[in-house]
Write a structure and sequence with these properties.
globular, alpha+beta, single chain
Length: 89
Protein backbone atom coordinates (compact mmCIF):
# COMPACT_ATOMS: atom_id res chain seq x y z
CA UNK A 1 0.00 0.00 0.00
CA UNK A 2 1.16 3.47 -0.82
CA UNK A 3 0.82 6.26 1.72
CA UNK A 4 1.82 9.90 1.65
CA UNK A 5 3.56 11.01 4.83
CA UNK A 6 3.32 14.71 5.51
CA UNK A 7 4.14 17.06 8.37
CA UNK A 8 2.32 19.95 9.99
CA UNK A 9 3.12 22.21 12.93
CA UNK A 10 1.09 22.46 16.11
CA UNK A 11 0.37 25.73 17.90
CA UNK A 12 3.73 25.56 19.69
CA UNK A 13 5.79 24.77 16.58
CA UNK A 14 6.16 21.03 17.22
CA UNK A 15 6.35 19.08 13.95
CA UNK A 16 3.68 16.35 13.78
CA UNK A 17 3.64 13.55 11.20
CA UNK A 18 0.50 12.34 9.47
CA UNK A 19 -0.22 9.92 6.65
CA UNK A 20 -2.90 9.94 3.95
CA UNK A 21 -4.14 6.84 2.11
CA UNK A 22 -7.11 6.05 -0.11
CA UNK A 23 -9.79 8.16 -1.73
CA UNK A 24 -13.31 9.10 -0.72
CA UNK A 25 -14.87 10.89 2.23
CA UNK A 26 -12.28 11.82 4.87
CA UNK A 27 -11.90 9.59 7.90
CA UNK A 28 -9.49 10.64 10.66
CA UNK A 29 -8.01 8.02 12.99
CA UNK A 30 -6.78 9.21 16.37
CA UNK A 31 -3.36 7.87 17.35
CA UNK A 32 -3.17 4.86 19.65
CA UNK A 33 -0.39 3.91 22.04
CA UNK A 34 3.12 4.14 20.50
CA UNK A 35 2.31 4.88 16.88
CA UNK A 36 4.72 4.84 13.94
CA UNK A 37 3.21 5.55 10.53
CA UNK A 38 5.85 3.65 8.54
CA UNK A 39 5.59 0.51 10.67
CA UNK A 40 1.79 0.46 10.96
CA UNK A 41 1.33 -0.27 7.24
CA UNK A 42 3.75 -3.19 7.53
CA UNK A 43 2.14 -4.60 10.67
CA UNK A 44 0.05 -7.77 10.27
CA UNK A 45 -2.34 -6.30 12.85
CA UNK A 46 -2.86 -2.84 11.34
CA UNK A 47 -2.20 -3.33 7.60
CA UNK A 48 -5.50 -5.07 6.77
CA UNK A 49 -7.44 -2.54 8.82
CA UNK A 50 -5.74 0.42 7.08
CA UNK A 51 -6.22 -1.11 3.63
CA UNK A 52 -9.90 -1.82 4.29
CA UNK A 53 -10.71 1.72 5.43
CA UNK A 54 -8.64 3.21 2.60
CA UNK A 55 -10.74 1.44 -0.04
CA UNK A 56 -13.73 3.68 0.60
CA UNK A 57 -12.26 6.68 2.44
CA UNK A 58 -9.38 9.11 2.51
CA UNK A 59 -7.84 7.82 5.72
CA UNK A 60 -5.76 10.29 7.73
CA UNK A 61 -3.60 8.87 10.54
CA UNK A 62 -1.04 10.62 12.72
CA UNK A 63 1.86 9.89 15.01
CA UNK A 64 1.30 11.32 18.48
CA UNK A 65 3.84 13.73 19.93
CA UNK A 66 7.06 11.94 20.75
CA UNK A 67 6.06 8.81 18.80
CA UNK A 68 7.13 7.62 15.37
CA UNK A 69 8.01 10.49 13.06
CA UNK A 70 6.55 13.29 15.21
CA UNK A 71 8.68 15.51 17.42
CA UNK A 72 8.38 15.66 21.18
CA UNK A 73 7.51 18.86 23.03
CA UNK A 74 9.62 21.85 22.15
CA UNK A 75 11.97 22.86 24.98
CA UNK A 76 10.51 26.37 25.04
CA UNK A 77 7.00 25.06 25.63
CA UNK A 78 5.68 26.25 28.98
CA UNK A 79 3.72 24.05 31.35
CA UNK A 80 0.59 26.12 30.65
CA UNK A 81 0.90 25.40 26.92
CA UNK A 82 1.04 21.67 27.65
CA UNK A 83 -2.16 21.92 29.65
CA UNK A 84 -3.80 23.80 26.76
CA UNK A 85 -2.69 21.13 24.27
CA UNK A 86 -4.20 18.40 26.43
CA UNK A 87 -7.57 20.14 26.48
CA UNK A 88 -7.62 20.52 22.67
CA UNK A 89 -7.55 16.78 21.91
Amino acid sequence: MRQQIRFCKSFDGTRLAYAVTGEGPPLVKAPHWLTHLEYEVQSPIWREWIEGLSRTHTLVRMDARGCGLSETWRPRTARASRATARTCR
